[in-house]
Design brief:
This protein has 361 residues and is of the alpha+beta class. It folds into two domains: 222 residues, no CATH class; 79 residues, no CATH class. Helices cover 59% and strands 16% of the residues. The protein contains eleven helices and six strands. A six-stranded antiparallel beta sheet has the order 1-2-3-4-5-6. A hairpin with a 7-residue loop joins strand 3 and strand 4. Helix 1 packs antiparallel against helix 2 and helix 7 packs antiparallel against helix 8. The two termini are 20 Å apart.
């Protein structure tokens, strides 16, 4: 029995955890959706959204909702299962059989690790679903997918585009200026065009404009053109629109690229860096919160369900508050953004270690 990697006790503990965890995964999203529907029903009515559009918006919201509530589901499952084992003296019996508390909770930690992996998957699945949800909720007269006005875009090659109108659906721009700074290898360049169309070969055709070649600060060679193919402008209309997207609409790699673009434009990207790192930090919370919840649940043998609910809700609220504080201090640059995103997990991990060290094994 002792030589087995997975014992009947492990399966029993994992089964109890999974039962509660599954119930939380089904219950939490329904609760979130009901609260959101009550809060926003008037807004949905004013936008004349159909029942089908609203229902689909909640369907697309499922991955993001699960991404956020998985740590809470792990916490509830950990606290309720450990509380049950404690109340029926199953942990005491295990200790009497020579099984330490750390070994007893090993199946829960394994399940929490699997939940962490699942949450990482949701962090990549949720962004495109969020984009579709926002499109549905914007209403029939929405133009967020088609138009953008008066903005600047910094390309990876160091060029800066200033665009008055971008139409993504029709794939054209109106009144565009392209600036390319001089270097040792090439002169500076400034292109002004009344209109540009995106071609099927991945390049832009600019029409009715002028090109200024600036070999030196005091020299300006002006060339007028009726049409010009800009071989260095290879961004798609969707990529030019990307600066309008929310962090929740972008995967980790997309957000990293977006941050790089804004940094080259001189924009403040601290908040975006926090949002990006939270895409990893929140899934890791699943494991941290299991380490925290297991010893916490053993502190009362008679609290029952009320105690488990109180501990779980209080811990969830504290973590949510810490995440908001994280965004605030990281966004303002008071702490490095990447470090700020990990502050809730660092504090929770330290507290978990203290609680684990005090548990009678």
């Amino acid at each position: 029995m002792r030589g087995r990697l997975i014992t009947p006790l492990d399966r029993y503990i994992a089964g109890e955890f999974t039962r509660i965890f599954g119930a939380m995964l089904l219950g939490f999203p329904v609760l979130v959706f009901v609260i959101d529907l009550v809060d926003n029903l008037r807004k949905y009515t004013e936008r004349k959204l159909t029942m089908k559009a609203v229902a689909l918006s909640y369907l697309y919201w499922i991955p993001d909702t699960l991404f956020m509530i998985l740590p809470a589901a792990v916490l509830f499952a950990t606290v309720f299962s450990i509380s049950t084992f404690t109340r029926y003296s199953e942990i005491t019996a295990a200790k009497a059989s020579g099984i330490s508390f750390y070994r007893f909770i090993a199946p829960i930690l394994v399940m929490a690790t699997l939940a962490m992996g699942l949450d990482l998957v949701f962090s990549e699945v949720a962004p495109p679903a969020n984009a579709e949800r926002l499109r549905l909720l914007a209403g029939a007269n929405n133009s967020r997918d088609d138009d953008r006005y008066n903005f600047a875009f910094a390309s990876e090659a160091g060029r800066v585009y200033r665009i008055y109108t971008l139409n993504v659906k029709e794939e054209y721009v109106d009144n565009i200026e392209i600036e390319e700074r001089a270097s040792k290898q090439q002169p500076g360049l400034l292109i002004a065009s009344a209109k540009g169309n995106y071609r099927g070969d991945g390049q832009w055709m600019l029409q009715k404009g002028t090109m200024h070649v600036l070999p030196t600060p005091s020299t300006d060679i002006v060339i007028s053109f009726d049409s010009l193919v800009d071989r260095d402008m290879r961004e798609t209309p969707q990529e030019l629109r990307s600066t309008e997207r929310e962090p929740s609409e972008m995967r980790f790699a997309e957000l990293t690229r977006f941050i790089g673009i804004l940094e080259r434009s001189g924009a403040d990207v601290n908040m975006l860096k926090v949002e990006r790192m939270l895409k990893i930090a929140i899934p890791v919370t699943c494991l941290i919160i299991a380490l925290f919840g297991a010893p916490m649940a053993t502190s009362s043998q008679r609290g029952g369900a009320a105690y488990g609910i109180a501990v779980s809700l209080a811990t969830t609220v504290v973590f949510l508050v810490l995440i908001q504080l994280t965004k605030s201090i990281g966004g303002k640059g008071l702490v490095a953004p990447e470090l700020a995103a990990w502050i809730p997990n660092i504090l929770g991990g330290l507290f978990a270690l203290i609680l684990l060290a005090r548990v009678r094994t």
